[in-house]
Structures are given as structure tokens and as C-alpha cells.
Design a protein that fits this description.
Layout lengths: L4 H33 L16 E6 L7 H11 L5 E7 L4 H13 L3 E5 L8 H19 L5 E4 L10 H8 L5 E3 L2 E3 L7 H24 L10 E4 H10 L12 H11 L4 E3 L7 E3 L5 H23 L5 H11 L1 H23 L9 H29 L1 H4 L2 H29 L15 H4 L6 H7 L5 H10 L6 H8 L4 H12 L21 H7 L2 E6 L2 E6 L5 H8 L5 E6 L2 H11 L1
Parallel strand pairs: 1-2, 1-4, 2-3, 5-8, 6-9, 11-12
Antiparallel strand pairs: 4-7, 5-7, 10-11
Length: 577
């Protein structure tokens, strides 16, 4: 037998590095288990409180394709009354500006905040200008917002999220809601990596940061700040609420507030959680993670060094060790495969390298423990079937993280060498379909009762008598509990789709011929106007993904739906077709 030295000669130093990197993982896992056995979750639930006024900040750069769906859905889903959206965009991003202006015209809660210069700059810079626009709005309206919540263009805000933030800001200056990727098929390996990693981060790492007394980094979305906390940031840093030079201003703000002594918390998973789709292509994931590594590991290191107590230094190490560990992880995967090939072909006698063999077994055991922890976290949130892919996705994660780290080192070094600023490394965003959003909307009965169309007792009685297969709204109309117009007003609130009677003189006769008659008849949908690249359609049915696909086969215009009563729809069809 011969020894394949190029492979096995690297195992010893590589194994030592992996062992050292794995020890803090083992410590954290043990700390988490002890904490869990003691029955502590890192946060105590505060009592319900009167609603504070909340401003939701959404910074945009080339997000015209998703921002309309994001706002429409969240306006219909959020179970909170006193909130408004402030959406930032750049002067040189006309499609996004047009989309937000349209939303601003349709919804009183939506306000456009235009940055004074072309983009992209940084997400933090855009957020700062949104904040300034909010101040002008407060001055004009003679009001004041108590809480600022940050979100992205692809976010699915949990219906109870604002209520949770409102409750916890009574005791904390910064509150972080859990952030989780939406579930995707098992074969979506790249997005599955996000599911695995976020499951572990949100179930274990974030609560342990709170438990250990370290800083809580903002996740960028689902983060609530009290005005007092933001005022402190502005006071110490020239009115900069968010650090414009940072690519990960969310992480930076968590650290800045911790240094100022502002209490922070993370709300454990079990209630509200922000959901979204993350990149599903290797290119998109690498681009996004390049920004994360650049901001969290490199910029933070340059700005803050290793100062702070033991807990903070521990988490600095956790956040930065990927600079070395990510490339090593990929190399370890390659050597593992090479070693298996050599061993299977009889070219290596492991007994000749006792120390390497023992180290190999120890590091292999630690890696199995790591995978087991991630499996449990993923299984809890996404099910055992999806969690079975954890070992395979670990290889995909190592590749993505290694390439992202190498790219981040190159981008950061080049920027420092040439004295250039780091700009917004935007990733492509997707928003869930209407069918995917259905489970996050308020129920029709809740909307009807909450809006005063029906009493709680009458609703409960109707629900008890509702026949199988009969829609609640139609059943209530037939019982005389509500009128058809009230039903469609409630559907409009639930779906964030405009509703109201459509007069024949508002219908363009030529536009009605855009769709074949069988489409109009089968899908009960009538095109009635074209304006600014939008096709407006009237229907007595709530728009569905299937309806949208049917119309998409005949036009590339953006679709804008309007709910009309069945009587109004049939009258229009008779008169115009």
C-alpha cells in the first residue's frame, strides 16, 4: 500500500483548524441546551398596550416588480390600525417611482420619500432620507410617530408583528421579530440553504445573544426602534440614524445601540415572524452574501475592532470566523471526497497516520453533531421531510459561503485600495403569489366584524349554520346579515383590491375587446381601461393566480383589478358585449 501524501498531508493542519472552529459551536449548542432545560426563552411576554403610532420604512432600488404586491398584501394582512408606510426611492429609478406614486394615490397610508440624489448609494443612505421625509410629514401633519419599523420590498409582514413590537417597546428600545424564509420545494437547494441557516439562527443563535447579554443585531427587516433610541443614534452621530457607509446598517445599528446602553430584545419564534423569499440562484445568493460578509465581518472589524465584554467578543468571533472558516469548509469538503476516493482505491493505509486518523474521527463527530442540531432546527420549522436534505445542502452552503467570502475580501480590499465607497449590492427579489399569501390574510369574518358590518354574535351564529361548500360572504348576504355592497367593501379591505360600482361611461369599448369572449365568460373578468402601462380589469371574483395567468396569455401590460358586484358585472357585459 502507498500513502497519498498530498491528500493526507493536508488533513492534519486542516483538521486542527476545523477542530478549533468547531469548539465554539459545541459550546454554544451546550449553552443553548442548558438554557432550554431551565425553561428560559430569552424574553418575557409583555402585557397588551394601547397602540402607538408606527412608521414602516421600506428602502427601494429597482423594485418596481415587487413593491406593489408587497404593499397591497401587507395592508390587507396587518392586524394593527395606527401605522403608515414610508417608501424610499431614487430619482433615476423611474419605474419604482411610478409604482410607489400609484400606491400613494390609492392608499392614504402610503407615502413616497424621494432621495435627493441618484442611486444606488447604500441602503442606509436611503433609510436616512426616508427618516427625513417622515420628519417633514410629522411637521406638516402635526403628529409624531412613536416607533419606526424597517422592512424590505419582498417582506411578508406577519399580521401580529406590529402588535408584538408595540408591546415590547414598552421595555426595549430595539425589538427584533424573527425572520424566516418561506418554504420551497426540496429540490430548491440554494433557497433551502437559507431555510436551514435561518432556522438555526432564529431558534438558537438570536435568543442566545440575548441570554448571554451580547448585542442583538438587527436582521434588517422586522426591526422596531423607539423614537428615543433613534434620537440617541442621531445625537451621537451627526443626525445619522443609519450609518450610510455600511453595507449592513442593520448589524451596525444593533451594535451602536448596545454601546449606548439601549435595551434590546429578540422575540422568540412561536408568534409573529417576517417571511420572505431569498435568492434561489447561486449567483443571487453569492451576491447577497458578499454584502453580508463585507459588512458584518470586514467593515465591523475595521470600525469596532474587538472591544467589549466577553459575550460581545464571543459573538464577534462567531460573526467573523467565516473569513477563514468558509474557504476552509469548502477545502475540507474537497479533501473529504478526495480522501474517500484514495481510501476506497486502497492507496492509503489510515493506520500509518494514527494522529490524523484520531483527529479525523473527532472532527467528523463534531460535524455530525453540527448537522444534527441543524436538522432538528430545520425539522421544527419546515418538517422532517425537508430536513432530510440538510446534509446535502451543507455542501451547497459551504460552496456559496466560500465563494462569497473570497469575493467580499476582493471587493473590500479593492475599495480600500482605491478609496472608493462600497455601494448597494442589490439582489433580485421575488414576492409570493396570491395563493401563497392566502394563509396570511385576515379572515373575511374578522374583517366584517372588525369594520362594524356585522356583530360578533351574528357572525358566530352564521359560522355555526354555514353549509359546507358555501362561501361565508354569500351566505351572510342570503341571510340578510349584510348587503352585497358591504360584502364587496369587506373583500376590498381583505384583499387590498379597489371595489365599487363601475359605470358604463368609464369603460373603453375598444379595451373590452382585448380579451376573447370565452375568457370574459369563463373567468368573469372584463377589461375596461388602459392607462400608464396598466390594464384595468373588473370582476366579481377575487383575483387568483389562475385568473392572472389566463389574462397574461393575452397581454404584457401590468394588471390592476377592481372588484364589482355580480349585478354590476352582468349589467356591464350585457351592455358592452
Amino acid at each position: 500500500m502507498t500513502v497519498d501524501w498530498p491528500v493526507w498531508g493536508l488533513f492534519l493542519p486542516l483538521g486542527i483548524l476545523i477542530l478549533l472552529s468547531s469548539l465554539d459551536d459545541l459550546f454554544l449548542d451546550a449553552y443553548f441546551v442548558v438554557h432550554w432545560l431551565r425553561g428560559k426563552d430569552g424574553s418575557e411576554r409583555a402585557a397588551a398596550l394601547p397602540e402607538k403610532r408606527i412608521a414602516i420604512f421600506v428602502p427601494l432600488w429597482k423594485e418596481s416588480a415587487v413593491i406593489v404586491g408587497m404593499v397591497e398584501h401587507n395592508l390587507s394582512a396587518i392586524r394593527y390600525r395606527d401605522y403608515e408606510f414610508f417608501i424610499g426611492a431614487y430619482p433615476n429609478d423611474e419605474p419604482t417611482l411610478e409604482a410607489v406614486r400609484d400606491l400613494e394615490e390609492r392608499y392614504a397610508r402610503v407615502h413616497l420619500a424621494v432621495c435627493p440624489h441618484d442611486g444606488p448609494t447604500s441602503k442606509a443612505d436611503c433609510l436616512n432620507w426616508i427618516y427625513q421625509n417622515m420628519l417633514l410629514y410629522e411637521e406638516k401633519q402635526a403628529i409624531s410617530f412613536d416607533i419606526v419599523v424597517t422592512h424590505d420590498a419582498e417582506d411578508l409582514i406577519h399580521p401580529e408583528a406590529l402588535d408584538s413590537i408595540n408591546r415590547e417597546t414598552e421595555r426595549f428600545g430595539m425589538v427584533q421579530i424573527p425572520v424566516l424564509p418561506l418554504p420551497t420545494p426540496l429540490g430548491s437547494w440554494v433557497h433551502g440553504v437559507y431555510c436551514d441557516e435561518f432556522a438555526e439562527w432564529q431558534l438558537k443563535d438570536m435568543p442566545m445573544r440575548v441570554a448571554m447579554g451580547s448585542f442583538v443585531p438587527s436582521n434588517g427587516v422586522g426591526t422596531g426602534y423607539t423614537r428615543d433610541a433613534l434620537d440617541q443614534l442621531a445625537t451621537v452621530d451627526h443626525n445619522l440614524i443609519f450609518e450610510p457607509g455600511c453595507l449592513t446598517e442593520d448589524y451596525e445599528n444593533g451594535l451602536r445601540l448596545h454601546h449606548l446602553g439601549v435595551p434590546q430584545t429578540f422575540i422568540p419564534i412561536g408568534g409573529a415572524a417576517t417571511r420572505e423569499y431569498f435568492p434561489r440562484s447561486l449567483r443571487g445568493a453569492i451576491r447577497q452574501r458578499t454584502r453580508w460578509v463585507t459588512g458584518i465581518a470586514l467593515q465591523s472589524w475595521a470600525r469596532h475592532g474587538w472591544r467589549g465584554g466577553r459575550a460581545q467578543k464571543f459573538w464577534f468571533w462567531r460573526d467573523r470566523k467565516g473569513l477563514l472558516g468558509n474557504p476552509i469548509g469548502l477545502l475540507a469538503n474537497l479533501l473529504f471526497v478526495a480522501g474517500l476516493v484514495c481510501w476506497a482505491s486502497g492507496r492509503v493505509v489510515m493506520g500509518q497516520h494514527m494522529m490524523s486518523r484520531q483527529l479525523l474521527w473527532v472532527t467528523a463527530g463534531l460535524q455530525v453533531e453540527r448537522l444534527a442540531v441543524r436538522f432538528v432546527c430545520t425539522a421544527r420549522l419546515y418538517g422532517i421531510g425537508f430536513a432530510l436534505g440538510v446534509p446535502v445542502r451543507a455542501f451547497v452552503a459551504n460552496y456559496i459561503n466560500a465563494v462569497s467570502t473570497i469575493r467580499a475580501l476582493w471587493v473590500y480590499s479593492s475599495a480600500r485600495l482605491h478609496g472608493q465607497p462600497l455601494v448597494w449590492l442589490k439582489t433580485e427579489h421575488a414576492y409570493p403569489s396570491r395563493n401563497a399569501l392566502a394563509g396570511h390574510r385576515r379572515r373575511l369574518g374578522e374583517v366584517l366584524a372588525g369594520s362594524g358590518y356585522i356583530s360578533d354574535d351574528a357572525l358566530a351564529s352564521a359560522l355555526g349554520a354555514q353549509p359546507a361548500g358555501v362561501r361565508l360572504g354569500r351566505f351572510l348576504v342570503e341571510r340578510g346579515e349584510i348587503t352585497e355592497e358591504e360584502l364587496y367593501e369587506a373583500l376590498s379591505l381583505q384583499q387590498s383590491v379597489p371595489a365599487g360600482e363601475l359605470a358604463p361611461d368609464r369603460v373603453d369599448g375598444l379595451v373590452t375587446r382585448l380579451l376573447p369572449r370565452w375568457v370574459v365568460r369563463d373567468w368573469r373578468i372584463l377589461p375596461y381601461q388602459i392607462s400608464s402601462g396598466n390594464l384595468f380589469l373588473a370582476s366579481p371574483e377575487v383575483p387568483s393566480d389562475e385568473m392572472t395567468r389566463a389574462v397574461r396569455g393575452f397581454t404584457r401590460l401590468s394588471l390592476r383589478f377592481r372588484l364589482v358586484t355580480p349585478a354590476n358585472f352582468e349589467s356591464l357585459v350585457r351592455q358592452l358585449l
